[in-house]
Fold this sequence. Notes:
Layout: H1 8-12, H2 16-29, H3 36-48, E1 53-57, H4 60-70, E2 78-81, H5 88-95, E3 99-102, E4 125-129, H6 140-149, E5 153-157, E6 165-166, E7 169-170, E8 177-181, E9 195-199, H7 202-211, E10 216-218, E11 221-222, H8 233-243, H9 246-263, E12 278-279, E13 285-288, H10 292-301, H11 331-339, E14 340-343, H12 351-361
Parallel strand pairs: 2-3, 2-4, 4-5, 5-8
Antiparallel strand pairs: 1-9, 6-7, 6-12, 8-9, 10-11, 13-14
Helix pairs in contact: 2-8, 3-8, 4-5, 4-7, 9-12
Amino acid sequence: xxxxxxxxxxQHAPIRDEIQAAMNRVLDSGIFILGPEVEALEQxxxxxxxxxxxxxxxxxxxxxLVALMAIGIRPGDExxxxxxxxxxxxxxxxxxxxxxxxVDIEADSFNLDPVKIAAAxxxxxxxxxxxxxxxxxxxxxxxxxxxxxxxxxxxxxxAQAIGAEYKGRRAGSIGHFGCxxxxxxxxxxxxxxxxxxxxxxxxxxxxxxxxxxxGATVKYHHEMIGGNFRLDAMQAAILRVKLKSLDxxxxxxxxxxxxxxxxxxxxxxxxxVELPNRRHVYNQFVIRTKDREAVINRLKANQIGYxxxxxVALHRQECFSDLGCKTGDFPFAExxxxxxxxxxxxxxxxxxxxxxxxxxTSFTD
Length: 365
């Protein structure tokens, strides 16, 4: 059987008619940028994420960028973050002329290690940007304590973690901002680009709303220099339909993770760790192996989809060479980049398909 890494068509099939009706509603309205569909989604995502405010934006990358703009990040500032994440995490910092300051990850969770943050703080440090990687939240109590002690902002990169929880609190509700992506491969994805910024601070929310629209609150009157970070109404309408199924899909992803654990017996593979007091939403199911190429070859031979998230740690990217980092500076991130491999975890995956993936990745059969 052929097993893709993600099957968006299977996800959409049961709700196709409802999605089509939502699209027709937008077409009939003639309102395609912001408007009532976006406002309704903002309220829905804010409530789902246990936040007071949601601000729809054009992508998860732009969510990070506009959040940094809203707290006044500028050239010369420093923002502490992880070297093991999608490029947008550090790229959004660098785009403002600020410096991403990397701190190594925890070996088991892949998330920013709060124990290592203190040594990275300087008088120029203005914020911490933890990433809730692969669907599991970072150690937020420790991160918030450090930020409060040093009077710094915290921006949660929750692009992969909508609905994830830390001690009963949702991703995006603990820091000053939460930043979400609705890229098609996310647990809640749209047929294009889209994102959301969440916050519990009314002043920060107003600032983001202005910045996403070229810094204007009143049309043609610009208090700040912002950008065009607006969310399309069509994407918002489709996301409103899909949001109703999100918890069901999350439960299915968690079920599939449990089935993987039930069948996997190869001691050379390390399966994802679920830390205490977390709700892991499994945007990805990422295994670790010392012999990744051999596992990939078996997956290819069995027509099973896979992806490497991420093969090059951010401090080793050519565009960040001026930061002066070198190989060995962040050993846990570097080891992860050499060993991780994502296999299918999408909600529609069957038990037979999971068994086929386990068979293909195992060397004990």
